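Suppose you are handed a protein chain with no further information: no name, no annotation, nothing but its sequence. What can you learn? This example shows the usual starting point.
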Amino acid sequence: MAREFASSVDGARMTMADIDEKRAKSAASAIPGADWIIIDTTDYKDLVGKIRGYDMVLGALPGDYGYMSIKAAIEARANMVDISYTVEDPLELDAAAKEKGVTV
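A reasonable first move is to predict its three-dimensional structure. Written in structure tokens, the prediction is:
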């Protein structure tokens, strides 16, 4: 997903994230010019802090973390495309996203 996005959006700055440094570096190495960071998605404040400042977040987390990651993107004022399944209804976050001026 990130590789496709990077190849189709001119000037896109990509940063690959994972809790595991080896996986983050490996993912970044597959995309020319990509950076990597470590993010603990179970730590809401860490997640919000690390995605703040990005224009777009691509989410592909396990379902247990999908809804929380959408909430974090909204709080960080980052647009988000997410393919995670979540039992919670992400449409419940629509008003909050609109209030922050982002699309999720």
